[in-house]
Amino acid sequence: MSMSAPAFTLDVRRQLLGQRLVDAAGGPAGYLADLELDALDEPGVLPAVTALLAEPLGPIPPRPDPAAAADRLVDVLTGSPARIDLDLVASLRPPVRLHVPAAELCPMPLGERVRDRLVLRVPLVRDLIGAVLVDDGERQLGAVVDVRLVCEWRRGPDGPRVRMAALVIVPGPSAQQPGDPAGPVLLPWREAVPIEAGRIGVDPAALVQLLG
Questions:
Q1: What's the CATH class of domain 11-125?
Q2: In DSSP terms, which residues pair with 170 in a beta bridge?
């Protein structure tokens, strides 16, 4: 029988990206560069985090600002991430703690990075940060500035469960009414429809309701 601690939320850009990882012995294990997701296109299903991508600490090539959308080709050619299954993560609250020693983390071979990032296009959280919100008429309604996760850390065979619950967005002028407060709001993932890289569809009526 599994037991779980109370669920908690984390905002990826604000609280996780760039955070140091700590291995099973308390030593440094790199920093968190991104998170892998399962399918984004299943209606009514909250995407699950399946793995962390960790880059090594120390002298590293300049990396993109976490606020910017990921450039997959640049990441494949310049990055050397280790892929860490979520089951190997002891805690996602910063500092992120792992169940394994840092010596067991191996950079993904170039062939695997090409396959996952450019061929299979495994979804990454940073693909969503910076994405533009549009309606059916291609009017820009705002932009994604962060991603809200809901985390359940279960003890037992079920292990941790981390799902993407909402997008943190900044509405654009066409989505606001006079007097509406400007600033980030939460758009539930079920109200979003991924269209293609960098663009997410949303119903203007749902957005106006959120702002109301």
A1: mainly beta
A2: 143
